[in-house]
Design a protein that fits this description.
heterodimer, A: alpha+beta, Molybdopterin biosynthesis moea protein, domain 2, 2 domains, two-stranded antiparallel sheet, 33% helix, B: mainly alpha, Hypothetical protein af1432
């Protein structure tokens, strides 16, 4: 998935994430092919950034997907990463609760429907 | 014996040209003290800087502020979003512009650092709006510049930063712990010192100085507590990188000020995801600089 500002979007690119307006209404579905006509309207719709299909081409695109990545839906690996990040605070009860609930959150996001991760905003770069 | 303050003074004396905020931003800070200031007056000040005006309009029209593509003038922005929001935006974009995005050399990644700072700002605002009531705009600014001392280290005292990063990697420890091994005053003191030079309000300076120990803050205790927690949750959610790969200890007294608890965590994580996504424009300002 590539994340880019609308000025870099080109004719023929395919949306990797649905495009929402501010009320959360879907303007364009995931998989929609962007035509010149659509691209010219993105600005009017108040869209700044779109996610399109394809491998990142620049360093900034590579680094632009924020948060945890869950490559190939491998939740187990993600949970191991969490354990490692929290390894220095194992004696802090609040942070242990934070860790447990974070894992629940990530399982909820990536676990049951690994293929839908592209819609959640934090999938792999 | 030298006091901590003297050590800080000795260190920062090595900095030859201190980054200063644009005149317009300083002026806005002063104007905010007057409750009767009009949208038109604010517009007149900001419009004197065309580049700043363009950036402000770009940000106020982003999803983060809830009126995408609907605000055409600075006056309009002040009326709809309030002076304090517009001022926050002016300060935020100016701070990005003061420092280069590429780190000098070595292991400190300045872009990922700014991602951490923006995430902390966004989460601070969320906490201030919902879990520990405070001025959301002040919380955003405090979160954004809480680690500004690290950029000073990178840009002006690079040798120290390199030593710190070596310690971080050698022993896989927190930046703040490595820093204590290398120097006696920290990025928190240094950031607060810069904020004072920039004439930022005392609560904000304290929030920077005490984001690792919010209990030490006086006027800025709430703000420092918010930033302390937001800093941790930006790390918990793995957004950006503050210089190390671990979670710092959470101060119980800061946590207890909030209404957060186990039953609210799922909602809180979803809100963070949502707010981070809406803050896209801030992140892309850093990426595309």
């Amino acid at each position: 998935m590539r994340k880019m500002t609308i000025d870099k979007v080109q004719d023929g690119m395919v949306l990797a994430k649905p495009l929402h307006n501010i009320e959360g209404k879907v303007l364009l579905a995931q998989g929609c092919k962007l035509s010149t006509r659509i691209i010219s309207r993105l600005d009017e719709w108040g869209c700044d950034i779109v996610y399109v299909e394809g491998e990142p081409e620049t360093l900034s695109e590579q680094k632009s997907v924020l948060g945890y990545s869950c490559k190939d839906g491998d939740v187990e690996k993600l949970l191991e990463e969490i354990e490692l990040r929290f390894s220095n605070v194992s004696d802090d009860p609040v942070l242990q609760m934070v860790k447990t609930t974070l894992k629940e959150h990530l399982i909820r996001k990536y676990g049951d429907h690994g293929n839908e991760t592209a819609e959640t905003g934090e999938s792999g770069s | 014996m030298e006091t901590k303050q003297q050590k800080l003074v000795n260190l920062v004396a090595k900095i030859s040209s201190l980054p200063t905020l644009p005149h317009v931003v300083t002026k806005l800070e002063k104007m905010l003290e007057n409750p009767n200031v009009s949208a038109e007056e604010v517009n007149r000040v900001i419009s004197s800087d065309q580049v700043l005006t363009a950036k402000i309009l770009k940000l106020v029209n982003s999803a983060f502020y809830g009126f995408p593509g609907q605000i055409s003038t600075v006056t309009h922005a002040v009326v709809i979003l309030g002076f304090s929001t517009v001022q926050t935006i002016a300060l935020s974009t100016s701070v990005f512009d003061l420092f280069e995005m590429e780190s000098k050399a070595g292991r400190f990644d300045r872009r990922r650092f700014w991602e951490h700072s923006i995430a902390t700002a966004v989460i601070s605002k969320l906490i201030a709006q919902k879990y520990l009531p405070a001025d959301p705009e002040k919380a955003f600014v405090a979160g954004l510049i809480h680690d500004i001392g690290k950029v000073i280290l990178d840009q002006f005292l690079h040798v120290y930063l390199q030593c710190i990063m070596e310690e971080v990697y050698k022993d896989d420890i927190l930046f703040v712990d490595a820093e204590r091994r290398v120097m006696e005053c920290g990025h928190d003191d240094m950031g607060a010192w810069l904020a004072e030079k920039w004439s930022l309000p005392i609560a904000l300076r304290e929030a920077i100085a005490c984001h690792h120990q919010p209990a030490k803050a006086k006027e800025g205790k709430i703000l420092a507590s918010i930033v302390h927690l937001a800093d941790i949750f930006a790390r918990v959610k793995n957004i950006g990188n503050g210089g190390d790969n671990h979670i710092p200890y959470l101060k119980q007294d800061a946590w207890e000020l909030t209404t957060l608890g186990e039953s609210k965590m799922q909602e809180f994580y979803d809100e963070i995801d949502d707010a981070i996504e809406k803050a896209d424009m801030f992140f892309s300002m850093v990426e595309n600089k």
